[in-house]
């Protein structure tokens, strides 16, 4: 009888207690609702842009048109690409954004490591200067940077005193050098390097590693969230930059994609269907990058905020 009972379904097997979910508090419900509303507000402009890019000009001008297109005109994308050399613009934007990202990761990480792990006279003063640089509005730096580029000595026909030519204007130097390093990246790397245990570098020094090899092989691989965060922010900022490339370039061969979108603003008004199609194509690379690196991006900001 005992054997029969043991072979019955369910007999002889322990059942785990079912975990009961705790009811959500009113504060948590309010938080979820608030975050959902904010998320919706952030997504609506992008959805409107994509839907507008698929409408005809008549439909966009009509006051009775709804949110969804009546006729889905996918040819707007191909026609927009023919209106200007967008392949060249996209190539230029990619080269500039990639250069800024690589240079910022390399130089800012080394600066952050030096400020965090190497003790030298004046390190605190230098760090506070970086903090002060974070407080300077971006547009107040445009004029001084433009003057530096314009009067760069021995460049673009300039003499030793920066006179007589155009300096770095309408060159790759003007597009890449001014945005190569950001104070925020240095600050973020310093915060991450400060949190690493000192035993790592002590063990590396006992193994005979020099300072640069400790930075490159031991410490930097431990701050992957900071690397991803800085890379995403730098690439996004450079890719979406409009004002600076507009000021320092004059030829189509150096125009970037954000400046190229201005061809759809004619004397008769913006060509909204083409402008929205071009903007959608210009936005897609950043959306894809953030979807790929969002886990490290959020972790980078969350971890830096705890230090």
Q: How is the topology of this model organized?
A:
Elements: H1 2-6, H2 26-52, H3 57-61, H4 75-82, H5 86-117, H6 123-134, H7 142-150, H8 172-176, H9 183-195, H10 198-206, H11 211-219, H12 224-239, H13 243-248, H14 257-260, E1 265-266, E2 269-270, H15 272-305
Antiparallel strand pairs: 1-2
Helix pairs in contact: 2-15, 4-15, 5-9, 5-12, 6-9, 10-11, 12-15
Index terms:
307 residues, mainly alpha, two-stranded antiparallel sheet, 15 helices, 2 strands, 63% helix, flat, disordered N terminus
Segments where pLDDT lies below 50 for 5+ residues?
A: 1-8
Largest beta sheet: strand ordering: 1-2
Our count of helices gives 15
Radius of gyration: 27 Å
Description of the structure:
- This protein has 307 residues and is an all-alpha fold.
- The longest helix has 34 residues, at 272-305.
- Strands 1-2 form a two-stranded antiparallel ribbon.
- It is flat, with a radius of gyration of 27 Å.
- The chain has 15 helices and 2 strands.
- The model is unreliable at 1-8 (pLDDT under 50).
Give me a quick take on this structure.
The protein is mainly alpha-helical and 307 residues long. It has helices at 2-6, 26-52, 57-61, 75-82, 86-117, 123-134, 142-150, 172-176, 183-195, 198-206, 211-219, 224-239, 243-248, 257-260, 272-305, and strands at 265-266, 269-270.
């Amino acid at each position: 009888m005992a054997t029969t009972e043991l072979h019955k379904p369910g007999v002889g097997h322990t059942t785990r207690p079912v975990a009961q979910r705790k009811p959500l508090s009113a504060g948590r419900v309010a938080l979820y609702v608030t975050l959902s509303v904010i998320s919706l507000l952030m997504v609506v402009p992008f959805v409107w842009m994509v839907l507008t890019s698929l409408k005809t000009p008549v439909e966009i001008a009509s006051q009775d048109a709804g949110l969804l297109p009546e006729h889905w005109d996918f040819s707007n994308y191909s026609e927009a690409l023919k209106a200007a050399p967008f392949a060249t613009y996209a190539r230029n934007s990619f080269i500039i954004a990639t250069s800024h990202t690589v240079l910022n990761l390399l130089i800012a990480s080394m600066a952050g490591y030096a400020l965090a792990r190497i003790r030298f006279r004046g390190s605190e003063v230098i760090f506070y200067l970086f903090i002060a640089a974070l407080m300077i509005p971006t547009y107040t730096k445009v004029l001084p940077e433009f003057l530096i580029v314009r009067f760069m000595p021995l460049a673009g026909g300039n003499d030793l005193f920066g006179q007589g030519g155009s300096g770095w204007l309408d060159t790759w130097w003007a597009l890449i050098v001014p945005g190569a390093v950001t104070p925020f990246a240095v600050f973020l790397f310093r915060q991450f390097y400060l949190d690493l245990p000192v035993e790592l570098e002590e063990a590396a020094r006992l193994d005979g590693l020099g300072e640069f090899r400790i930075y490159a092989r031991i410490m930097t691989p431990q701050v992957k969230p900071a690397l991803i965060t800085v890379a995403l922010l730098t690439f996004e900022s450079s890719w979406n930059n409009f004002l600076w490339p507009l000021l320092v370039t004059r030829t189509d061969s150096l125009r970037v994609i954000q400046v190229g979108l201005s061809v759809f603003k004619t004397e008769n008004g913006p060509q909204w269907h083409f402008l929205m199609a071009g903007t959608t194509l210009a936005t897609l690379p950043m959306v894809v990058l953030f979807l790929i690196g969002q886990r490290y991006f959020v972790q980078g900001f969350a971890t830096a905020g705890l230090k």
